[in-house]
Amino acid sequence: MDRAERLARLAGDAGCTPLYTLKPFSFVGAMELLAPRVAGFSVSSLFEARLARRVLGEEGLVHLTTPGVRPDEVEVIAGLCDHIAFNSLPQWSRFAPRTGGRARCGVRVNPQLKLVEDARYDPCRRHSKLGVPLSALESALAGDPAAFDGMTGIHFHTNCDCEDFRPLLTTVRRLLERVGGFMEKLSWVNLGGGYLFAPETDPSPLLEAVNLIRRRCGAEVFVEPGAAVARGAGRLVASVIDLFDSDGATVAVLDTTVNHWPEVFEYQEPPAVAGQVVGGRHRYLLAGCSCLAGDLFGEHAFDEPLAVGSQVVFEDAGAYTMPKWHWFNGIGLPSVYARTPEGRLILKKSYGYEEFETRCGG
Length: 362
Known about the structure:
Elements: H1 2-14, E1 17-18, E2 20-21, H2 28-34, E3 40-43, H3 46-56, E4 61-66, H4 74-80, E5 83-86, H5 89-95, E6 104-110, E7 132-133, H6 134-143, E8 153-155, H7 166-183, E9 188-190, H8 204-217, E10 220-223, H9 227-230, E11 236-246, E12 249-254, H10 262-267, E13 282-287, E14 296-302, E15 311-314, E16 336-339, E17 345-349, H11 353-359
Parallel strand pairs: 1-10, 2-3, 3-4, 4-5, 5-6, 6-7, 6-8, 8-9, 9-10, 12-13
Antiparallel strand pairs: 11-12, 11-15, 13-14, 16-17
Helix pairs in contact: 6-7, 7-8
C-alpha cells in the first residue's frame, strides 16, 4: 500500500484527485484495500464499472472511458459512473443525451503527440482508435460549437510506463495552446495514466501541469495510474517440474506459463527473477509448461542449482497478469494469496477444474 499512499501524497501536493485504474489488477481484495487511499476507480467497461461500484458503494468516484460502449449499455453505465469520457464525437452525440444527466460527460482527446516508441502501446499512434484527434476537435469546435453544449470535461492518456513527468507537461501546454478557450468552460480534466510515479521522479512538471489547468480553467484535475500502483505489489511464484538438456542449454520447465503473464510474450523481454545473478554459475532457460514453442521466460543464471521442486519467483508481476491470464491447454490458473505485514500468506482465491469446465460450456 506504500505505492498508493505515495500516489495520494503526490496528488495532494499537486492539487489533483487520485484514482486507481482497474485494468492492470482488478482483484476485489486489493480494490478494498485501495479504496480508502484513492478517490475512486477508473474503468474501461461495464463489468469493471459494476465491480468498482460494488466495492465503493456510494462513497467513491467511478470514471469510465472506452472505445467499446454498446448502445444497450449506456443507461446502465450512466447509473454506475460519475464521469464518462466518450471516445469519439459520434459516440458523444449519440450517447450523451441518453445519460439523463446522471453522469458528468465529456470526451477523450488524442493530443496527437507521439511519446511512445512502440506503436503497440502508443495511444497517439497514427490512425489511433483512442480519443478524438486534437485536429478534429479544433475543426468541430470551429464548425459547430453548439454540438459541445453540456460537455463538462475531457480525458487524455498519452504515455506508457514513463518515469518522467515532463511529457505530461508538454501535453497540457499543447492542449491549452490549441483548445484552451474550450477547456476554460470545463469543470474536470482527467490526465490519464501511463506514468510510474516512482519515488525518484521529479514531481515538479506534474505540479506545473496541474497548476496550469487549475489557474486557467478552474477545473478539477484527476490522475489515474494503474501499473504504477500494482506492478511491484505482486509476484508470480512457480515450481520447477522438469529439467533436461536441449542443444546445450538446460531447460527448466515450470508449472506456470506465459499465458499467465501474456506481456512476457508480447514484450519478448525476460522478467526479473528473485535470486538471479549476472554471470551466475548455473544457467537455465526457464520455460512455461504449455505446448506453445515460444512459451519461454528467458535465460537466467543463479549461484545455486535448480532441481525439480525448486521455487522460481518472478518479481514485479502485479500488473497485467490476472486480468489477462487464460486457460490455454487447460493449464490451471495461479492461486492468489495476500501477504500480511508479518509475512504470513493468506489464500484469497484458487481456480479449479470447475471454472475450466464452465468456461468450456460445461
